[in-house]
Amino acid sequence: MYVILVYDVGEKRVGKMLKLCRKYLNWIQNSVFEGEITEVKLTELVIKAKYIMDLEKDSVIIFKTRQEKWLDKQIVGIERSGLENII
Description:
Blueprint: E1 2-8, H1 11-24, E2 26-29, E3 32-36, H2 39-52, E4 59-65
Antiparallel strand pairs: 1-3, 1-4, 2-3
């Protein structure tokens, strides 16, 4: 499946959340990630994120679609981290 993940966590937890999400998805902008991921890996990511988060103050939002081709994405301005840079 293809997902877009957005998080909003406290300053003290931002670095840990960034590091965790980079293990599973592609970083595209501050606190925003996207990419193909299996249901099992997504579940693993969510479980690990809950350990980092303060569930009373922080949030993670995940948008899911079957494949990237079903997502109409428009970028205005510079793309932070394009996949074309990966060798």
